[in-house]
Amino acid sequence: MRDHREVRTSRWYGGALGLIAGSSALATAELTTGILHQRASPLVAVAEQVIQLTPGPIVETSISLVGSYDKPILVAACLIGLFAVSALAGMLAIRRLAWGQAVFFGFGLLAAWSVKESLTASPSAYLPAVLGAVAGLAVLTVLVPRARAAAESPAQDTDLQGRSQPNEARRRFLVVGTTVVATALVTGGLGRFLAQGRQAVEAARRSLKLPVRSMPTPAGTQLEVDGVASWVTRQKDFYRIDTALVVPQILPEDWRLRVHGMVDRELELTYDQLQERGLMQAWVTLCCVSNEVGGGLISNASWSGVRIADILAEAGVQDGADAVRSTSEDGWTCGTPLPALTDDRNAMLAVAMNGEPLTVEHGFPVRMVVPGLYGYVSATKWVVDLEVTRFDAFTAFWTDRGWSEQGPVKTQSRIDVPRAGADLAAGEVVLGGVAWAQHTGIAEVEVSVDGGPWQQATLGRDPSIDSWVQWKVSWQAKSGSHDISVRATDRSGYTQTSREVDPVPDGATGWHTIAVEVSA
Question: Can you give the pTM of this predicted structure?
């Protein structure tokens, strides 16, 4: 029987063998992905399937904990998992080659299945997964004899003069393994470089000459209270929530929109044909259904695009339809109530934000913007397909995870200043924040201190019922601990409820309340 030292040595060389083979598989897959200019590598496709299969509450919790870092963390976790299982495969292979080969064969099947679910199922889409698995199997098979020889050899050899020197078998395995890993690093890096179609997309974006200008901020909307969110949100500051691990990179000349389903005439529009219909502009505030009371997943901008109602009218919506199922380039789906796309609101296929072409992160070249609805049922980025249908005929990404079928934005308000936990000086303090009730409009905002009477706030100008408003109020602060609450009343007469409800399944409710300390 082998002693414990021999077992540890065998495991060490087996683990190293697996890591070498896993690196080769990953590098080959990345290189092939780059050469084919595909949107996502097999590793990213696997990570996207993790998102698809993860229950909604867990996805929601991860977003609340790590915010926009959730995707890099997930990819890193998948990468760690790949190398951990590769090391195990190497340990198995050094004992019996077929066991290690079976693990890498399973890797290939998992990657191919993930590609099928995440990417367009063309034959070339499977090449990175197939070639990656083949490379891993080949390296594993070729290096197993060397790894076994290294593990079974003594740490030192003795020459003719009786002097100790490094074991030749172990030295050869180390040299070959280091060479393979170095080659894998270069190959994988080259693949990532080739995959950066982002450069071409950014160049195309910069060269666009859209017939739009940045709309000036309407007078009176900005109350100039330090610390209150700017009425206009810059693109780089606009909140972003989506499930795309790799942002779809679509050149304007390659973009196509298919309109089909319960219509009289199917349409297929190019980017130029969309623009030829004429662009309109509107101020619209977008809000994520995941936004907690007082949260920051809300932003306001001017949008330029083509009214969806006009396109649907051109296609001819048939009787009985009540929804539009939209699909993103990355496969994400949502269902939008048909009336919200055909009434007088400015629901549009947007091509620009604040007078500039959309950034890639925010849906370039075309995305949906629908006032009055949470983004999960309306704001499809990188939109490529509109199917006129019925809600009882389909499900979508978030409704499959327990969220409601339709998501009208709930009337909400937020305190921006002072911040929760602030230490204030006694005397006059200006309180300020924002309130919103998209496509209904805000009529009144009130503030209460320590459960006392509600004091009406001054509102900024509201040029559109589809955008948020700023508010402010003066408070004579006295020393001690205080709780400050805010509530809004919209133009339908509805006043925010104090009942606290989590975002799932259709948006949070409750009064935003903060605690502050006032020193004499």
Answer: 0.77
